[in-house]
Amino acid sequence: MQQHDNKLRAPLTTLKGVGPALAGKLERLDVCRVEDLLFMLPLRYEDRTRVTLLGTTRPGQRCLVSGEVLLAETVYRGRRSLLVRIADGSGQITLRFFYFSRQQQQQFQQGTQVSCYGDVRAGAGGLEMIHPEYRILKPGQEAATSDALTPVYSVTEGVQQGRLRSLVGQALEIMRSSTPSELLPDDVLADLQMPTLAAALLYLHRPPPEADLISIEEGRHPCQLRLSFEELLAHYMSLRNLRLLARREAAVAMNGGTEELQTFIRSLPYQLTAAQNRVCTEIAADLSQAHPMMRLIQGDVGSGKTVVAAVACIKAIACGKQAALMAPTELLAEQHWHNFKQWFHDFDLQLAWLSGSQRTKDRRESLAAIAKGTADLVIGTHALFQDGVKFHDLALIIIDEQHRFGVQQRMALRDKGMRSNFHPHQLVMTATPIPRTLAMAAYADLDTSIIDELPPGRQPVRTVALPDKRRPEVVARVREACAGGQQAYWVCPLIEESEVLNYEAAEARHELLVQALPELRIGLVHGRMKSPARDKVMRAFKDGKIDLLVATTVIEVGVDVPAASLMIIENAERMGLSQLHQLRGRVGRGQAQSHCVLLYRQPLGQLARSRLAVLRDSNDGFLVAQRDLELRGPGELLGTRQTGLPQYRIANLVRDAELMPKVQRVAERLQHSDERNAALIMQRWLGDAGRFGKV
Ligand code: ADP
Ligand code: MG
Fold this sequence. Notes:
Blueprint lengths: L1 H8 L10 H8 L6 H5 L5 E3 L15 E14 L5 E7 L4 E6 L4 H6 L5 E11 L2 E5 L2 E5 L12 E3 L8 H17 L8 H7 L4 H9 L7 H5 L4 H27 L1 E2 L6 H10 L6 H14 L6 E6 L5 H14 L3 E5 L3 H14 L7 E4 L5 H13 L4 E4 L13 E6 L7 H10 L5 E2 L1 E6 L5 H7 L4 E5 L10 E6 L3 H13 L3 E5 L7 H18 L5 E4 L5 H12 L5 E4 L12 E6 L7 H8 L10 E6 L5 H12 L3 H12 L1 H5 L1 H4 L16 H14 L1 H12 L9
Parallel strand pairs: 4-6, 9-15, 10-16, 10-17, 11-13, 11-14, 12-13, 14-16, 18-23, 19-21, 19-22, 20-21, 22-23
Antiparallel strand pairs: 1-8, 2-3, 2-5, 3-4, 5-6, 5-7
Helix pairs in contact: 7-9, 9-25, 9-26, 10-12, 11-12, 20-22, 21-22, 25-26
The protein binds adenosine-5'-diphosphate and magnesium ion.
């Protein structure tokens, strides 16, 4: 069995016609072994299984035809071209070539039989094919048809379609004599009603003429599901392995701190919600284990995740350890800093601040306190896991808005907390709630807690979508609201990825609003401001000294000003649903009824219209995320680049999400009772180095 597989696992250079140069090009496509060719599925198929009669062809059709040359001529109308008229008794068609050699010209003698494959289109003088693939037939020879549909692969620079096809053909040949091991248990395959791996691969590379191409195109053919299933399984198991491994790793068991924790909760100006209490209990239980916690808190925007993080810190610090809290932006880190300062004011503990824009002297002081252990809690940005930061005894790491950070960054911070063989506990929080099946695939290395309840008294934000030509009405509405003592955000359009342009747009909008609303106190924040300046504006807004805050999307994450109750978002049609939901979550935090106005530029496409409708109709972040996922795909939702969400070869998380519960069950079973096959599946799909998080 194992030996058989070896031919498939051999390097590409074992195939005919593959030298180091071609192997190098294919390697860039991640095709390194013979087997990898099999997992590179065709993009589409061509039907060369039969010859189509010329009399029955129609424009738009792609087909194989055959006929006798009636006439070949070079014409100079507009552009020099070679026209070859062929006929088969049922009809005629013209072949048109713009690039041709003298030799080609001479091939098309009157009476010669040719077969061609190409797109049929309506030309000036009837049906034509432009630059078809063609073959000159010998007298009496029939056009060559194939037994199966012809696969079309995605080509890379310098590797031609024909070459790829023949290489895959060789790989299929090898597969015929040395079938790849079937790594899924028989009863699982039977239960899923899926073909074996080998049957699925053969079918997809060489579908029979009657294959249901529509179901293949939509990715729901059982053969594709079979492959997607195994790929999702491989990725799931590798993430799950990280989790299982952590259960065997050692961490400091923090048993104490219960009293301090109660005192802290009692000192808060409000009561924790039942959901917050439940999650705090789950965290406290994790922290008292001698294995590292790896927990994700999911909760809608405004559900009160920060205070739960504070509870975790209190417990760790009461046990004599250090904790670190990392946020994705300075603004958010600063807000946490202010909150924690206030919350911990009456407790005897030290906070330290670390950020990229910090003055050298302050930074040095922070670093010293962190290294000596006089700092109990460190709050900051990415600066936390950079070189030169040495913790005295870091035992708890909290990462806010985790979708903004990569797995790698998380690992880097974790390594800061490594103390001989002791691992730190990790808590990650995300305000982009993600659908359950997607969470299963993306965060299988984490245990999940969900805060599924908002603090009492919150009223859903009322949302409307308006064309931006109605901006004057909206300005009037802002005037009225602020005159009545409310505060408002005006979020400026996002211009590409350019911070400079975003900030210019925000400045211009600020200018206009200052002119239009001279009686209001109007502030401006954007990403290019130095943090003290920005902090000052945010403070003023928080303290009610500014009525209207003009901002770029820097305020997207986490900013908390409960008195603000009106938000205007420009160019809403360009933003992702989850991002809009995040922005909107800045209002609706106090007791007053809040409103959100989504301004869009006309004309609005059908997709954009339905996207905005989702926000108008729902305040539930999980529902918004589900729709966002359906409309834009998981990469956008999770930020693929940042999270390092795996790039699948065949599976598609949106399309195949419903496989996840079964993937999970099969993974549990294999990892429990068939570790060898589990390892082989991971190796097949992820390669030797491919353990997620380790790359
Ligand atoms: P998020 O989950 O979006 O990070 P925050 O932690 O910023 O939410 O909390 C949002 C707001 O809700 C803050 O003003 C916070 O003080 C408040 N809050 C949190 N928990 C409660 C609670 N149990 N009762 C009332 N207000 C709360
Ligand atoms: Mg938050």
